[in-house]
Automatic annotation (TrEMBL):
<dbReference type="InterPro" id="IPR029055">
    <property type="entry name" value="Ntn_hydrolases_N"/>
</dbReference>
<comment type="pathway">
    <text>Amino-acid biosynthesis; L-asparagine biosynthesis; L-asparagine from L-aspartate (L-Gln route): step 1/1.</text>
</comment>
<dbReference type="GO" id="GO:0004066">
    <property type="term" value="F:asparagine synthase (glutamine-hydrolyzing) activity"/>
</dbReference>
<keyword id="KW-0061">Asparagine biosynthesis</keyword>
<dbReference type="InterPro" id="IPR001962">
    <property type="entry name" value="Asn_synthase"/>
</dbReference>
<dbReference type="InterPro" id="IPR017535">
    <property type="entry name" value="Asparagine_synth"/>
</dbReference>
<dbReference type="InterPro" id="IPR014729">
    <property type="entry name" value="Rossmann-like_a/b/a_fold"/>
</dbReference>
<dbReference type="GO" id="GO:0005829">
    <property type="term" value="C:cytosol"/>
</dbReference>
<protein>
    <recommendedName>
        <fullName>asparagine synthase (glutamine-hydrolyzing)</fullName>
        <ecNumber>6.3.5.4</ecNumber>
    </recommendedName>
</protein>
<dbReference type="InterPro" id="IPR006426">
    <property type="entry name" value="Asn_synth_AEB"/>
</dbReference>
<feature type="binding site">
    <location>
        <begin position="369"/>
        <end position="370"/>
    </location>
    <ligand>
        <name>ATP</name>
    </ligand>
</feature>
<feature type="domain" description="Glutamine amidotransferase type-2">
    <location>
        <begin position="2"/>
        <end position="214"/>
    </location>
</feature>
<keyword id="KW-0547">Nucleotide-binding</keyword>
<dbReference type="InterPro" id="IPR051786">
    <property type="entry name" value="ASN_synthetase/amidase"/>
</dbReference>
<comment type="similarity">
    <text>Belongs to the asparagine synthetase family.</text>
</comment>
<keyword id="KW-0315">Glutamine amidotransferase</keyword>
<dbReference type="InterPro" id="IPR033738">
    <property type="entry name" value="AsnB_N"/>
</dbReference>
Length: 594
């Protein structure tokens, strides 16, 4: 796990190595164990390294393969790198390290851009053909590892984080009205390739982009599972599906133990993280380190679920660590979390993950986490409504159950110069749901949530918050083979038992009933949800700042209405509306965006 950066020139000039160095240094937290810069011809690459696999200097990056005439910077982990290494050796390839980065280089030499089809894992990489000057960018199937892009005069820059691109300079930081519409509609999610800044884009998940020396490029989307009932699973009953999911999850958890350092677990005490702990115990893991976080109660709302995480820790004798955060620590903690955000994120647990990651990083550098299970196995409360939607009303139903606010309300929030004039978020959903490959309304919703909303909200959140402390988070529920299996699973099995039915059946085989049958929990941060004093003070300060007034993103009358009753205004999904708008302004100020 690392941070990568680079610049490609298309105008005959040499790359700006100083800019690449600035981008690289901005990502020092992602890779505290090493730094490297490489430049040849029209390309320069930078890398910050977190040592997880091959702890020797032979695994350092940028990695140059002089025999293959290739250079690579890589972020992530290819979990099947050992098997691929053996396969490539039988094809005649010789290795000088034991790193998965070198496997990527040799796999490209053997299979070209089809190499990504062989990888099981999470990754983003940039690979240069030293002789031709061709550059290949790629991102994993579920977009677990980020890759941001910024075009400039005669050049393209890329990096693992958006703030790194800003550090390079020359980025158009004007606001993208379409992205703002999505931000306000989808709980701060902005779908690839957009970001809230006009000058920064994201390589979409499951995409390989080949960039020629003249600047022309071509993309290939190399993976998209079918959300339909496949013939190979015909005749399977509920018990068969339970066993198939359990076997696939076991494999996913086992794969994510691959490391040359210890691997722990972020344990919330919910079904998903508890399953990971139990399956690791089955694998014979001893002295497993587990970590939980909770917050001080506010507004009558409890802020921790320690009773459940403690139960799992006692059951398996884990080395358990609890972190309880008082409300008066939140403003400082919030500023640290916002500084770590590549894009603005309003979900309360962003602060929790940042604080928890700080503690975990003192103990180890790799953890497994339960993100993704709710999207993959239909765990959210709105899925039954989607399942009941009439086919011709699928997009409208999705907007009714998922959107924070309708298109008409966006005009109440934003100043006129930032309005799109059209329901851009609704258009995106309509186009996505109309594409072939989803058999039912629920299948279409799960496909949208798994491959768009999940990628640019919870997945991005976990990457940003953990990597800001040099901590690698691995997500077994986003194993692509498990996702393929879940996509084919009959909707009624996923919807059963108030959601995630097939996964709860798995849990009944390996977990205490108190964990499986507990009410669904969310990661509560009451001080943010209820605008407790210290948080409200930070919000007022940001919205009253000269930068905010000069920027003029939000209508003054709307802000006055929210500030007059900070805890009274909620979006359709129950988020604090003041927090939704204030977080964007706090993020822009934190990252020095005019």
């Amino acid at each position: 796990m690392c941070g990568l950066s680079g610049e490609i020139r298309f105008d005959g000039r040499r790359p700006d190595v100083a800019a690449v160095e600035r981008m690289t240094d901005r990502m020092a937290a992602r890779g505290p164990d090493g730094r490297g810069i490489w430049s040849q011809g029209r390309v320069a690459l930078g890398h910050r390294r977190l040592k997880i696999i091959d702890l020797s200097e032979r695994g350092a990056q940028p990695m140059v393969d002089n025999e293959a005439r290739l250079t690579c910077v890589f972020n992530g982990c290819v979990y099947n790198y050992r098997e691929l290494r053996e396969e490539l050796q039988t094809c005649g390839h010789r290795f000088f390290s034991t790193s998965d980065t070198e496997v990527v280089l040799k796999a490209y030499q053997q299979w070209g851009t089809d190499c990504v089809d062989h990888f099981m894992g999470m990754f983003a990489f940039a690979l240069v053909e030293n002789d031709t000057g061709r550059v290949v960018l790629a991102r994993d199937r579920l977009g677990i590892k980020p890759l941001y892009l910024a075009h400039g005069p005669g050049r393209l820059r890329f990096a693992s984080t958006l703030p790194a691109l800003l550090a390079g300079g020359g980025v158009d930081t004007s606001l993208d009205p379409v992205a703002l519409h999505q931000y306000l509609s989808w709980h701060a999610t902005v779908a690839a390739p957009r970001t809230v800044l006009n000058g920064v884009r994201k390589l979409p998940p499951a995409t390989v982009r080949v960039i020629e020396p003249d600047g022309s490029c071509r993309d290939r989307c190399y993976w998209q599972p079918s959300y339909s009932r496949r013939a190979e699973y015909a005749g399977m009953d509920a018990e068969d599906w339970r066993d198939a999911v359990l076997d696939s999850l076991r494999t996913a958890v086992r794969r994510r133990m691959i490391a040359d350092v210890p691997v722990g677990v972020l344990l919330s005490g919910g079904l998903d993280s508890s399953l990971i702990v139990s399956l690791l115990a089955e694998e014979g893991q001893r002295n497993l380190a587990t970590f939980s976080v909770g917050f001080e109660s506010e507004g009558g709302e409890e802020g921790d679920e320690f009773a459940y995480s403690d139960l799992m820790a006692r059951r398996h004798g884990t080395d358990h660590h609890r972190l309880l955060v008082p409300s008066d620590r939140l403003p400082t903690a919030l500023d640290g979390a916002v500084a770590a955000m590549s894009e603005p994120m309003i979900s309360h647990d962003v602060v929790a993950f940042h604080l928890l990651s700080e503690q975990v990083s003192k103990e180890l550098s790799v953890v497994q986490s339960g993100q993704g299970a709710d999207e993959v196995f239909a765990g959210y409360r709105w899925y039954p409504e989607m399942a009941a939607a009439e086919r011709e009303r699928e997009p409208e139903t999705y907007a009714e159950v998922y959107f924070d606010r309708p298109h008409s309300d966006v005009a109440r929030v934003l100043q006129p110069h930032l309005l799109t004039g059209h329901d851009e978020s609704g258009r995106f959903v309509r186009e996505h749901m109309a594409s072939p490959g989803a058999e039912t309304a629920l299948d279409a919703a799960l496909r949208l949530d798994t491959h768009v909303m999940l990628v640019d909200d919870p997945v991005k959140r976990v990457d940003n918050m953990t990597m800001d402390w040099g901590l690698e988070a691995r997500t077994p529920f986003l194993d692509h083979e498990l996702v393929e299996l879940a996509a084919a699973c009959p909707p009624e099995l996923k919807l059963a038992q108030d959601g995630k039915g097939v996964l709860k059946d798995v849990g009944r085989k390996v977990l205490p009933r108190e964990i499986v049958d507990r009410p669904k929990g969310y990661f509560p941060v009451p001080a943010i949800r209820h605008m407790a004093g210290p948080v409200l003070e930070r919000v007022r300060s940001a919205l009253a700042a000269p930068e905010a007034r000069a920027r003029g993103v939000f209508r003054e009358e709307y802000l006055a209405e929210l500030l007059a009753a900070p805890d009274d205004h909620r979006t359709k999904r129950g988020a604090n509306a003041l927090w939704h708008v204030a977080l964007l302004e706090i993020w822009l100020q934190t990252h020095g965006i005019d």
